[in-house]
Amino acid sequence: MSTPADTGPDCAGSLRFAALLATYMQSANLPLPNAVLRHIQGSLSMSDDQAGWIFTAYLAASAITLPIAQWLAARYGLKRVYQISLAVFALGLLLATVATTPLEFVGARLLQGAASGVLAPLSMAIAMDTLPLQRRVKFGATWTAIVLFGIVSGPGIGGLIAEHFDWRTIFYSSIPLTAYIFLVITLLLERKKPGPAPGFDFFGFATFTLGLIGLQMLLDRGPRLDWFASREICIEALASALGLYLFGVHVLTSKVHFLSKALLRDRNFVLSSLMFFALGFVLLSTMALTSPMLDEILGYPPDTTGALTIPRGVGLVGAFLLMGRVPERFDRRLFVAGGVAWVIYANWLMLGYSPLMDAWPVAVAGAIQGAGLGILMPALSKTAFSTLDPALRVEGTGLFNLARVYGSTLGVAIVQWWFFNNTQAMHTALAGNLTAYREASRSLTSAPTQVLAGLNEMITGQAAFIGVIGQFKILLMVMLVVSPLVLFLRKPVATN
């Protein structure tokens, strides 16, 4: 039974607020555990390589459900799908609070991510329906700013809560918000009878998903299972190769498929999507590295670790909003180049991090990187769609956002893998150099166990810090590799 919607402005405003709150909540929950990884790992006996699953599980599940959200809404009804997604999200939150093993916690994050991939586009659809046509054109920037604000403020909120309460409280805090959104949607959103299900390329979607999820599992599990010495890794590699091969053949031989060929013929769209992939790679990976560095290696408390993400958030959201005021006559390619340069400079500053530094280098580098990303994101969006056929913009928007999501999930997996390997190699190298000091090394053989444990902990900390710096080099290289693409962009067509 449905509840008719009140068409008055109060109802529209309440629905829009609930939809934007859901948008913020699902984006903030992605990095929410970032500032309290040490506490989560200690409680669940989670290894360092498993800690990366906290983010990749959420991102990968979101990337799977994001492309089919609109189809689900058209097939089963927007209200019903949205309510189920909220219920699944709340279930994931509850399961995270009662998890006692890494597998249980990762399973809870998978549920949260799967619901998030549906909530994000449908929240935007609900909010857009509450606005008059003339205001919908510029609303996309507001929605994106809220998504970004959620991503950059999540660690700060998580750290502040965890400093005064148990880490599980960070998930409890989202349950009342979920209940409020569910209540508003139930009472105010009209239940429309689902129409005929639109066409959807399930084969293309399935093979594309199989290829990327196989690659994701390969990168996540490889370091722990000694790569291709493991049968599991061989199966995941085979699944990834098979999925991507079948998807490639499907794209080349089928007239209608998951990704329209027309999108791939627009040079600006393709190049901008590649750069947007790199942007996602850098944004979440930096956060996944910085917070553990501060929390686990340098020993900062969770509230300080979370607070040090604020400069990046202020720079990102502030630059993004300022870009919305730039007149159309200015060539957006200049801003793309400027944004890339700012991000490269910020990543270069991160190479100078030291175990002896205070908080200022982290705050400054974060603010500069945030400003660069805040300039780059809207400039890339404008460039990507300015030359694209308007009939392809809906499909293009989905693919463009998917590029950022997959950039983030693969980026986190790659940096975690490299960190795991690099830390082990540096630990071996540093420990091996102790033999050069022969008298000191002889004395260690008779040293108390506590002394040896302390020495090993110090070496591990040094190796881990060197490993983190190595990760920042990867992020710098990613931006350097895509930076020449700016030269091949066509001048965007000015639009009103």
- Low-confidence parts: 1-6
Q: Calculate Rg over CA atoms.
A: 23 Å
Tally of separate helices: 21
Provide the CATH superfamily of the domain at 1-198: MFS general substrate transporter like domains
Per the principal axes of the C-alpha atoms, what is the gross shape? globular
Report the order of strands and helices.
HHHHHHHHHHHHHHHHHHHHH
Characteristics:
single chain; 496 residues; mainly alpha; Growth Hormone, Chain: A; 21 helices; globular; disordered N terminus; cell membrane
Write a structural description.
The protein contains 21 helices and no strands. It is mainly α. It has helices spanning 9-28, 37-44, 48-51, 53-65, 69-76, 78-98, 102-129, 133-164, 169-172, 174-188, 202-225, 231-253, 261-264, 267-297, 302-307, 310-323, 332-350, 360-386, 393-432, 438-444, 449-482. Among the domains are: 1-198, Up-down Bundle (Growth Hormone, Chain: A); 202-257.
